[in-house]
Structure formats: C-alpha cells, structure tokens
C-alpha cells in the first residue's frame, strides 16, 4: 500500500470518530482542513495540540455558502466526505433530518467540488446499503433495504442516495471518485452510539450491559486502524477510481451476546447481562466480503478482535471523561 504525502485534504465530518482517526493518520505529511459541526468530538482524543497544518472550520454541510467558500479557498487535492447523521437513535427520532443531512448534504458537497480539479473524491457510505441480511455481498451486486415504511432504514436509504449522487457527479463532471462501505468499525476514541464503545464503558464501570433480543445477531467488527489503512490504499491506488470497496474484517465475526461476554472477560468486569426488547427493527447478520479490496488494494485487516478489544478497553479506562 502507498503513503499519502504532500496533499491538501478537505475532510467533512473530520471531528467524528472515523474522521479524527483519518486526520491523525494523514496530518503529519499533508495539509488538512476539517469541516464539521462538532455535534460529536473525537478529534480531541486523537490530536491533543492542533498543529499548523490542520485547519478547522466549524460549520454545517447544509450551509452551502460557507462550505463552498471553504473549499474554494483551501483548493483541496482530496475531498473525503464523512459528515453524516449516523447514530441509531437519530434514525428513529429525526428521520427527516437524517435524510436531509445524508442526501442533501452530500449534494451540497458535490456541488461545491464539481468545478475543482480534484485528484480524488471519497464518499463514506455504509454496510447498511445491503439491507437486513448481509453475508458475502459484493460491491458490484445489488443493494437492498427493508420495509420502506420503517424509519429504521432511513440511514441506509439516505447513504445509498448519497452514493448514487457521488457516482452521478463522477460521470457527469469527471470527478475521480471512490466509495467506502465500512462494516462495524470500533476502537479508541469512539464517542456516541457505537456498540463496542457502549459495552466497554458499561463493563469498566461494572454496570449492567443491555443486549437486545436474544443476542444471536451476528456482526463482524473491524478495528479503526485497519479501516484507515484501507482508506489510504484507496487514495494511493489508481485502480480504485470509480470503484466501491467493502472495508471490514470477516475474522472479527461474533454474536452480540458473545461480544458482551468477551468484553466483560477482558475488562475483568462484574457486569451482568440483561436482555431487552429491540426498540425497532434489528439486523440479524452482517459480515463483509472484502475480496475486492484484497485484490485491488492488497487490503488485509491486521488487528484481530480480541487484540482490538484489549486496546479499546485500555484506552477507555484511561479516558473516563467520555464514559
């Protein structure tokens, strides 16, 4: 895999968990402009003292004037679009806002960059574009959603719309575009509603861990550093232009109940597990097929689940303010 150097990189959502991890990886050898409304702030845990080559604009991607002005002044080589409404509670409480930010917000970003001579536009999509059951799904196959009347699918629908917009602009305006579909990313610095983060913060405080349904739902968890390596491979591969990549770790496959039990064991916790009804519609199976990323990008996840959980537990123990 190549290394990104001497680039001007504009990151929407750069203060979020994934955006902050990307910034940490890339800022030493590049210039970064983060555009974020700071609804959540993981950046504080990744970058302690903001260096001169990181600029920050606190703004909303729906503020088209501010967004376009920032991009025109910065003149980026790369634009990484991560800004989104992504929390599960958002789907249920603010479905219209979720659609607005994820779909119309993406349109705003694309309008702002369509005349810029970019080297790469990267859209961060989601594994939810594959619908309720995901096993072995390939990027060039069909996408799916659940019952359209269920607001649970608002996120997947809106992100799929953003992905469609991205490739429509790529075709019409000749923007070199790639898309990432991340699968269940976790690790140090995550704030908000990540399942691993919630279980860990409960476990290290010996609090009851709530598992929805019977706990047999299956997920494959990918450590944050592996996702960032996948992104860097996309940015440095000419073959990645015009392509979509599943980025995840099939080896991190585990049931939700077993995940909770493993976190309790690794953290030495006294937490009990309590089963509760799911508040809406759940996904029973989600495991990525990373064959395409492996072939084109030479992407291989390097952190196994137990090691990633150990690193995460240690980090959350040292950073109690976010619990």
User: Which class do the helix and strand fractions yield?
Assistant: alpha/beta
Strand order of the largest sheet: 3-2-1-4-5-7-12
User: Low-confidence runs (pLDDT<50, min 5 residues)?
Assistant: none
CATH superfamily of one domain: NAD(P)-binding Rossmann-like Domain
Short structural summary:
This protein is α/β, with parallel strands linked by helices and 323 residues long.
Walk me through what this model shows.
The protein has 323 residues and is of the alpha/beta class. It has a domain at 8-183 and 224-248 and 288-301: Rossmann fold (3-Layer(aba) Sandwich). Helices cover 38% and strands 18% of the residues. It is built from eleven helices and 15 strands. The protein has helices spanning 17-26, 43-46, 64-74, 88-93, 95-113, 154-173, 195-203, 224-235, 256-267, 291-297, 305-318, and strands at residues 8-12, 31-36, 54-58, 78-81, 120-124, 133-135, 177-182, 185-186, 209-212, 218-220, 222-223, 244-247, 253-255, 273-276, 285-287. It has a seven-stranded parallel beta sheet, with helices on both faces. It has a four-stranded mixed beta sheet with strand order 6-15-10-13. Helix 1 crosses helix 8 and helix 7 runs parallel beside helix 9. It is globular. The model has no long low-confidence stretch (mean pLDDT 95).
